Amino acid sequence: MPLRHQYFLLLRAKVPKALAKFSHKNNIKLQGKIYTRVFIKDCVVFMAITLPILLTTPRFATGHPSTGPGIDEPRDSVVKADSSTRPVSRPPLPLARPQDSLSSPPSPQATTADTMANDSTASKPLFEDIISYHWTDSTHLSVLEKKVYLYGEGSNVKYLTTEVTANYIEMDMSQKVATATGIPDSTGTPVGTPKFKDGSQEFDSKELRYNFNSKKAFIKNIITQQGEGYMQGEFTKKQNDSVYCVLDGWYTTCDAHDHPHFMLRMNKAKLIKDQKVFATTSYLVLEGVPTIIGVPFIFFPITDKGTSGIIIPTYGEERMRGFNLRNGGYYLKFNDYFDLTLTGDIYSNGSWRLQGQSQYVLRYKFRGNFNFSTSKNHTGEKGLPDYQESSDWSLQWTHSQDAKANPYSTFSASVNISSAKNNYYNATNLNDIADQRKQSSITWSKKWPDSPFSVNGSFNHNQNARDTTISLTLPNLSLRMTQIYPFRKKGKASNLKWYDNIGLSYSGEFRNSINTKEYKLMKSSFSQDWNNGYKHDIPISFSFKIAKDITFSPTISYSGFVNLKYLEKTWVPDTSAQGGVEVKQYIEKVTYSHQYSTGASIGYTPTIYGMYTFKPESNIIAIRHMIRPSFSISYRPKLGPLGTYAKSYWNGEKEVQYSMYEGLTFTPSYTTSPQSGSLSFSIDNNVEMKVRNHSQDTTDNGEPKKVKLIESFNLSSGYDMFRDSLKFNNISLSARTKVINDKIDLNLSGSIDPYAIDSTGRRLNKYHGGVGRLTSLSLTSSFSFSADEGKNKEKKNEFVHGHYDQYVDFELPWSINVNYRMNYSKSGISKSSITQSIDVSGNIALTSKWQFSYSTGFDITNKQFAATSFDITRDLHCWEMSFNCIPFGQHQSYNFRINVRSSMLRDLKLTKRESWYD
Question: How far is residue 619's CA from residue 688's CA, in Å, rounded to a whole number?
C-alpha cells in the first residue's frame, strides 16, 4: 500500500481515539481544544510527508521532528517503507558513531565513501519483507528523517530471520540501518545492551549498527560463543553471515565476560563461524595481567564435529627409561562413524611405544572401540647386571549391539589381552598395575522365532601375568534345543497325564582349547597341544507329584563324543631308579564314543513357620521364624561303558590301564561306574521382627516396621549310602544379614568336617565329636555412610529460626566405604591360619569448590598398609586444580596440576609431578 494511503487510514482512526481517551470527562471545552490541536497537528504532518514525496528532492526534508504526547503502553507494529505512529516527547539518545562504512555521512563530501548508503538496489522495494518491531516503554517517529526510535526493556526489531533486541533501537528507513544500544542506569552503567540473532547465530554487544540490505554490521564489544569458548572484541565488523573481522579481541573459555580469569589477547583476528579462528600476534593474560607467553599467530578449529589433526606430545622424565615424549601423533576423522588415533612414545634410553585407537558407531546397530599397542622397553644400561629388555603388546576391543538391531541375533565382545609385563612398564595407574589377571569373551547367538533351536558361539580367554599361563577357547560352538513335550497336545495346560510331563531336549557343543604358557602359545602344535572335540547330549526327563511337596523325577540321558585324536602310552625301560619312563603320544584319528546314564530322585521341600507374639504394651509385636527344609534322595544304578575305551601297557612290574581319551576335552567313561545313592538335605532359616512405629512421619500411616534379624542361615550336607566309608559329606554353612538400619552387610560362610583325623592328618571313619572340625571360615562385612547432603536443611532452618544461611553447617557432604575381610583355614594337622584386612575409601566436599577423596587399606595380619592414595581437587571456575599423592609403597608418587577445564585448551596447564614411572 502506498505511504499516503496508509496515512489517510491512520488519520481516520486517530481523532476518535483521542476523543475516546478523554470521554470520561465532562469538560466539553477541553475536548474541543484537543480535537482542534490534533487536527491542526496532523495537517502539518500530512503536508510534511506529501510535499517531499511530490517534489522528490532532499532539500525539502529539513527541520527537527515535532513532539507530542507520549505513548506509555507497550505496542507492536508492522511497517514497510515508513510508519506514521504518533510521535512522543522523548528525544533520541545520542550515539557515538565510529567513522566506518556503516556510519551516516557527516557531510555531502563523505557520502560517496559509504558503500551501504549508495546501494545499487535502490530501484527495488525498500524491503523484501515486512519489518515488525515491538517496544515496551515508548516509541518516537521522525517522518522527515524517516527514522523510528524504540525505548524500553526487550524492545526488538524483526526482519526475515534477523532480530535485534535492546533497550534503545533507532531505525533509519532510508538507509536500511538499525542502531541499538543500552540505556545508562542511575550509576551510569548501560543496561539492556543489544542482542543480535540471525537464524542459529547469536551474540551480545554494547553497541550495534546493522544494515538490513547488505547484512553487514559494526559491533562494539561483541561477545559470541564459539565451541567451548567465547570470542570477544572491542571493535568488530560483520562481513556476512559467517565472517567477522575483530580488532583488539580475545578468546577465552571463561564465562565471566566482564573480567575473564584468563584470555588469549589478539591484536587482529578473523572468525569464520563454526569453523575456525585466525589471529595475529597473541599473548596470554591471567587475571588481567599480561604475561610474556605469546605466539606469532593462532589458529583455532571450531566445530562440533571431529576433524583430523596433529596431537601434541607431552614431555616427561622417567627413572627407568629417561627423558620422553608421550602420546604424540595424529588423529584421523574418516566420517561420523569411524575414526583412528595413532600415537607414540619415545624415550632417551631407546625405549619406544606405538599405539592405535579407534572408535566406531552405527546408530541403532552397534558401537565399539579398538585399542592396540606394541612397545620395546629397555631398563638399566647395556652390559650391566640390572639391564633388562622386554617386547610387549596389548589388545583391547569392546563391541556392543543395539537392542533394536536384531531381536533374534546378538553379538558382543570384551577383549583384554596383553603380554605379561605390558602393564608393569606402560600402565599409569595403580588399578592397571594390580590387574594381574585378564579375561576376554566374544559371544554370538542366533535363535529362530517359533522354534526351540538356537546357536551360540564364543571365544574365551584367561591369562595370569604372575606365572604367564594363558588359556584359550577358540571357538566354542553349541546348538541347543529347549525342552519340548512330544506327548502333550499343543496348548494343553491342565488335566495333564503323567506322560504329558515327559520332556525331551538336545544340546551339542564343539570346543577347541589350549592351556599353556605365554611364550609357548605361538609355537604350539594344533594336533598335539590343542584339545578339540564334539559332544552332544539327549536327556529325557519327567516329573510328577506323589503327594503335596513331594516330587518324583526319573531321568535318562544319552551322550556321544567325537574326538580328532586319542592317546597312546608306551613304556620305555632304562637304568634309572624307576626302571623306565612313560611316553605319551596323540594319534590323529577321528573316533566316536558314547555313554548313557540314568537315575531317579525324590524331593521334599516344605515350608514351616513359627511365631512368637509379645504383650500389647511391648514395642516388639512379634518375631517370625521361617524354616525351609529340603530333602532329596537320588539313585544311580551300576552302568558299564558302551564300548572299549581302555588301553594298557606293561611297565615291567604290572599292567597299567588308562583311558585312550585321557586329557582330552570330552572323555567318556572307560570303566564300569558303581551304583550310587545319596541323601541330600539342607535347612534355610529366616528370622524377622515386627516392631511398633513411633515415627512422626505421616506418609507411612503408622504401619508397623519389619526388621530382618537373619536374612538367611543355611546348613547343608549329604550322605552317600553306597560308599564303603566316610559316607557323610562336609557340612556347609552360610549366613547373611544387615544391621544398624540396613547400613552394614554381614556375610559368613564356612565348612565343617564331621570326621576325626590321625596324627598324620589322614581322615578316619570316626566321628570327631561336637559339631565337627571347622576347616574354613570366611567373614566379610561392608558398610557405607554419608552425610544428609542438605536433606534436612528445612528442619535445620527451623531450628535456627530461619537463619540457616548465616550459620556454618558442619554436616558437609561426605561418604565413607569400609570393607572388612577375615579368613580362617585349618587343613589336617597343620597350624590354623587367620588373615584379616580392611579397606577404606570415600570423599569429603570441604566446600562447594573443594573435594577430597581417599583410598587406603591395612593388612591386619602382616601389619602393613595396602596401596594408599588421596586426591584433592579445586574448582577454579574456568580452571581446575588437582593434587594426587601415593605417600608410601612401591609406587610412591605425587602429581600437582592446574589446567584449563576446556578440552580445546587442555594443553594450557602447569604441572609438577614425581611418579613411579617418571
Answer: 15
